[in-house]
Amino acid sequence: QRSAFVPFIDLIRAKCSVLDMQSAVDYRLHVQRKAGMYLSPVNEENKALMEDSFKDMATAMATDSSDSEIKQLTVPVMMGRKFTMERFCNGVAYSTFDE
Asked: Is the dihedral of CA 70, 21, 23, 29 positive or negative?
């Protein structure tokens, strides 16, 4: 499966900006500590925690205060397929992966 996924990594790099945050803090871990490693079971409380985590990460990645529009993003994957992220903001994607 790696061979099928590697071209997708190149596409992500081509379509997204890579930023060196030059920070000793790994903010991904910060959000995980806040939300917990896993959110289980899938219930309203955990859905709200996931929503808060998404908004926190998108806000942290904003380049200015007006950069907070949540939109849908579709990218080609391979063999004519497309992957749609229902919610995307400031380089942060939120997807259920339901298909």
From this structure: positive
What gap in Å lies between CA 2 and CA 31, rounded to an integer? 27
* Residue 54 φ/ψ, nearest 5 degrees: -60, -50
Q: Which residues of 54-75 are buried (b: 16+ CB within 10 A; e: fewer)?
A: bbbbbeebeeeeeeeeeeeeeb
pTM of the model: 0.56
Burial 79-89 (b: 16+ CB within 10 A, else e): eeeebebebbb
- pLDDT tens figures, 11-34: 888 888 877 767 776 666 665 556
Contact 56, 33 (CB under 8 A): no
User: Is residue 49 classed as helix, strand or coil in its secondary structure?
Assistant: helix
90 neighbors 55 (Cβ within 8 angstroms): no
